[in-house]
Model the fold of this input.
Amino acid sequence: MSMEVSSNYKDYKNDYLERLQEEREKAKEAQKEQGAGDKSEGIPVPKDEYISSKQSGSRPSGLYRMGQDENGNPKVLYDDPKKCTTNTDKVDREIRKLKEQKQQLEQKINAAAGDEEKVKELEKKLSQVEGELSQKDNDTYRRQNAVFS
Done:
């Protein structure tokens, strides 16, 4: 008994594929009929997209992060937000110290009103402290340098 195998795959019919294509065509036609009065045709639909850790920064934005188990195998770790606390004491101390420095320099400038060179030198230091203070005395800097535990 012998069998002949046809090498032409177009001869085979796939009913499922045909039904699927017919349903897609019907859905497209229905969309065209409903979408005739729709004004949001050109607006893209928002979608989720993957952003790698290299693009988003070093710290993951969610509660889940990649880590390693005790054997060194990759593992997904969960950070419970109820356990995490934010500590900005170090940043606050740094800002307080800069404000005190600024106040002391202003007092020294007022005290050395007669000496022009000393006043210029103190004003230069004061402008540096003010610049550093303007960079650090904001919420963004506090968030970036906060300690999470």
